[in-house]
Every structure is written in structure tokens, then in C-alpha cells.
Amino acid sequence: MCFTDYLVIISTLNTLLFPLCCQNVNADQTAADFDSFMEQFGRRSEVSGEERHRRSLYVQDAAKRHAYLNAFFKVPQSAKYGINRFSDLSQQEFRDLYLRASADRAPLFSGLKTEGLPDKFDWRDKAVVAPVQNQEACGSCWAFSVVGATQSVRAIGGSQLEQLSVQQVLDCSFQNGGCNGGSTSQALNWLKQTRVKLVPQSEYPYKAKTGICHFFSQSHGGVAVKNFTAHDFSGQEEAMMGHLVERGPLAAIVDAVSWQDYLGGIIQHHCSSQWSNHAVLVVGYNTVGDIPYWIVQNSWGTTWGNEGYVYIKIGGNVCGIADSVAAVFL
């Protein structure tokens, strides 16, 4: 499918998802004051004229979307949607800036389910998950996902948890497009084939823009990926839970179109799971409450969602969470 066809389909989806009947919400009641929005989220004070008017309208449009999305609120744990730092972006701008991952078709998982899984499991409890990062206005989620899985698996193996260089993957994974997007599978395949060692982030810091690849000698220390697996767990999310417990945090590609408006809670609706566009790190799950959910680390900073995390209902492949899931081996 070409990118133009993709946009046409997404436009049609948005029309269905946010129908005209939901556009009659009184803007005076629902739109956040734009000056307050600018101050709260640190937007440029010099925004004026036509751009200011346009962004003010986007905030009003976002408030109308939230009225529709929050109408699906059923229980206290349900996802909540509202004004956040992405609210002055059009839906198209948001996709162009942040949803730049692509997914290669993964084979269906054909292994056995793991028996005796705990009711809840979170790799953060083992101190092997690095803090939430912020990709900023760069389509580098695919690199954050791959590096996040790699550094966690290394820590699970007994090494000290250390933030590895996302910028190195962004600059050097030649099969991908840097800030213009990429594939977790292609990045992992590049790491496997080249045996490139990922260096600490302190040695190759993140710049939120694509740069020239900096090469290191073979004798330079770092972390090399020996292998990886990528599977489609759709219809087999219990098996995916076992995979998470046995292999470590998992790099997954999801449909995050509705995440522009997400504030917190467990997402159960508004994800088509048909167009994968964003890479994340699945670090745990919880099946104790009324709504079982995945615990997913995002790369949009700690002010987004649940302190940088999003919770996604287990079952039904919500947001396409199970479509393309990769595990790393060191």
C-alpha cells in the first residue's frame, strides 16, 4: 500500500471514528484557553497570526474529539482522553511527526503457551527497565523500542542497567530512514548481521535528528545483538505473556493514531489494529483487576499518559499490540 492510499484510508477511518454528530459540542465549553495551553505546555510565545489561529482551532478540535472518546468510559480504569502537549497539532501533523514506524509481516507464533504464569508481572520490579525517554519531533520510536529491549535483556543477564545509544541506531541502521521512520525488525536484523556494538548513550547522545554514522573500532566496548525473534501473537496473547516473562521486555509495533489524546487508564477502544505505525516496549502485564492489561513504555516523555506508559487491554489485539512482537537475544 502506498503512503497516499494509507492517508486516504486513515481519513476515512477518522470520519467513522469521529462522526459529524460528535462535532456539535459547544467549543466555549470544551476548548481549552489557548493562552493557558501555550503557557502550560511551553509553546513558543512568538506564535502569532495565522499559525496561532490555526493551532487554536486544533485545540478546539481536540476537545471535540475528547468528548466523543470519553463517551466510551465504562469503568474507573477505562482510558481517559483530554488536552495534552499534542493537542495543538492536527491529526495529520501528529502522524507525520510521531507515528513513523513500519512493520514487516511476522510469522504466526507456533510455540506452546507457558504454564503457571503469575497473575501480574512487571520487569520494572526487577530494576531492568531504563527510564522513559522522549523522542521529541523525530520519528525514531523504532530505534527507542529496539534499544530499550536490548538494554533490558542485557541487565536481565546480570550487567548493570545502562542507557544505550538510540542515536547510534538512528544514524547507522542504513536500511531505515532515521527520523523519517523505520522498522524494528530491520534494525534488529542490521544489528545481528553487522554485529555492531551499541555504545552507551553518554558516548553517543541523542539529538532528535538524523546525523552521520559514527563508527567505533571492533575493540571498542559495547553490546552486540546475537539474534532476535519476531512473531505475530494475535489470538495468542496468553502465549505472548509467557514470551515476555521468559525473554524480557518486547519490542512491539502498534496502531497509535488515537494516542494523540491519551491521558491515562486502560485503552479498550479506538484502535483499529489495521495500520501499524508506532514502536513501543512491552514491559509487563496485569490480569488481577476487572480489565487485564499490558504495561507499555512509550518514548514521548514522562508527561504523557501514565508517567510515560500506556496500558492496553489484553485480549482482542487492541491497538494491534500482538501483531508484530520482537524479542532480543544477546
Structural descriptors:
9 helices, 2 domains, two-stranded antiparallel sheet, single chain, alpha+beta, 8-stranded mixed beta sheet, 30% helix, 330 residues, Cathepsin B, Chain A, disordered N terminus
Question: Could you walk me through the main structural features you see in this protein, from its secondary elements to its overall organization?
Answer:
The chain is an alpha+beta fold. It has 2 domains: 3-98, no CATH class; 101-329, Cysteine proteinases (Cathepsin B, Chain A), CATH 3.90.70. It is 30% helix and 15% strand. It contains 9 helices and 12 strands. The chain has helices spanning 3-17, 27-30, 34-40, 49-69, 91-98, 141-156, 166-172, 184-194, 237-247, and strands at 80-81, 101-102, 120-122, 182-183, 227-231, 250-254, 262-264, 266-267, 278-286, 293-297, 309-313, 325-329. Strands 3, 5, 6, 8, 9, 10, 11 and 12 form an 8-stranded mixed beta sheet that branches. A two-stranded antiparallel sheet has the order 1-7. It has a two-stranded parallel sheet with strand order 2-4. The radius of gyration is 20 Å and the shape is globular. The model is unreliable at 1-32 (pLDDT under 50).
Largest beta-sheet details: 8 strands, mixed
Structural class: alpha+beta
Rg, Cα atoms, Å: 20 Å
Sequence of secondary-structure elements: HHHHEHEEHHEHEHEEEEEEE
Helical content stands at: 25-40%
Summarize the structure.
With 330 residues, the chain is an alpha+beta fold. It has two domains: 96 residues, no CATH class; 229 residues, Cysteine proteinases (Cathepsin B, Chain A). The protein has nine helices and twelve strands.
